Amino acid sequence: MSAKRLTPSKLTYLDFEQPIAELERRIEALQVSHDEHAALDISKELEQLQKKNTKLLQDTYQNLSAWQISQVARHPQRPYTLDYIECLFTDFQELHGDRAYSDDPAIVGGIARFKGIPVMVIGHQKGRDIKERQYRNFGMPRPEGYRKALRLFRLAEKFHLPIITLIDTPGAYPGIGAEERGQSEAIARNLYVMAELKTPIIGIVIGEGGSGGALALGVVDQLNMLQYSTYSVISPEGCASILWKSASKAPEAAETLGITAERLKGLGLIDHIVSEPLGGAHRCPEEVMERVSNAIAQQLKTLQAKKLPQLLETRYQRLMGYGKFKSTSEK
Amino acid sequence: MSWLDKIPQKIKRAVDSAQRRNMPEGLWHKCDACQTVLYRTDLDENLEVCPRCGHHHRLGARDRLNVLLDEAGRVEIGSDVTPVDALKFKDSKTYAERMKAAQRDVKEKDALIVMRGTVEAVPVVAAVFEFKFMGGSMGSVVGERFVRGVQDAINNKSAFICISASGGARMQEGLLSLMQMAKTSAALTKLSEAGLPYISVLTDPTMGGVSASFAMLGDVIVAEPNALIGFAGPRVIEQTVRETLPEGFQRAEFLLTHGAIDMIVDRREMRTRLSQLLSSLMNISKAA
Prior knowledge:
Chain A: Its EC number is 2.1.3.15. The structure holds two protein chains of two kinds. By secondary structure, chain A is of the alpha/beta class.
């Protein structure tokens, strides 16, 4: 998908968007008949309907529940990592493989230029159609994916390239082979290495931030989230099936887990929220791309101005600051 | 549920309670593995390892520290760090309620106990999980106590030992608990810079966010026999891949053959083996 708008007949509507879907399809049909019978003047009617639709969209999106936001975050037409790479970067050269076992298509990465500056960009990649989804394993990496990322982190460090990570995964893949090849170790190693990597790292949650599988690309100097993305220790469905013994309680779980950008900003766990167009990133990708681009440009400038020891100390202190607890003593 | 489903359950309950009647609480214990009925005191003295089949039952954090550390010079670290319910988390119960219940039942404030001391005269800081406290789950307190332990080890030029027993991150603390994975792993970079060894001991079970952070970052990784160790839980994997899992999957022996850990050590030899490892790594001469 390139950065183009989708027409109502091409757009996938979520369950809670059905009233919007009806209205937009009506508008589209009217427009077609308007084009065909130019003599009939229905422009006023159209205008009214469009106003009504904008209001409906606004009302719906102003009051999204955490569960609805997680539906938007997983929207099948949402821009994915390679869409961002195509729009925001030039000279992208994809690098493959972990040099030990395999190449994991659920994580893509490579060297590119961002506004002329050489960078390393790495992200989770989901698939659009059934075939590609399977190929990308629904964006769920195996250990070799994390080890490829690790290799690229080291490469970036060696050549002083800032790193940009794009986070969008349901989680690390829970499979037999993944466990045999050390899924835990692969994730743990990335957390360790990213904490002390001698180059600036910017992270952006563009869709789903699924637990440890997301965090393995998420130890960064600046953490951004798109307005309708989520970041959580466990999926709402997983949490519901453990604590409520029923996956149908996912909406309640989503609410209490605090997975939205707004809630996480309030908790001090993320730095910046990139706002999305009305109705979500997929409705106007070019708008999102531009905002993400601006955020990266600004943060890159700030981070690159810092001396390395200061950059690393700030990153370390930021990591040490995570957590809410009572304590009667100083460290 | 139909009346038909209820019948087997009732029968099962009757059988269960009949078994319980035959087992006075406290005096006897039936081995979880070989079903041998053992004297409670025998099992206690044997560090909860079955004398018949060698099965390692779970052992509490304080008991582990008692066995591991020399008696003199023990100092607890971070005991003043206590949990709060930052998200006002609520499922069928609130997190605040669950926390209080665990504190009352387990008589600990949270799931990690950290102590400075010595192991056969080798200076160490030991962080030990209490599985009974909400499944040894890692929230903000576990992360903070872990980090303070690592810092103390650096300040006192001690080795760091972590004995894990955990289901993973504590859901009730949401993303705050996930971030403890990053926080604890980052702290270990400083220990490494200071040239001090870190031994990670994996006991039953070490899963999820604990497994996928500091537990797998040991300079040496040791496991207890038959401990369940992995990233995803066996049930989740089974549901995902729709296959029966291979025999011994995610057990310590499985990890050893797959190259994920260095060794499996019987609990009764753990103290000696750890002191040998650490004294060699730290080049401390041992009394002959």
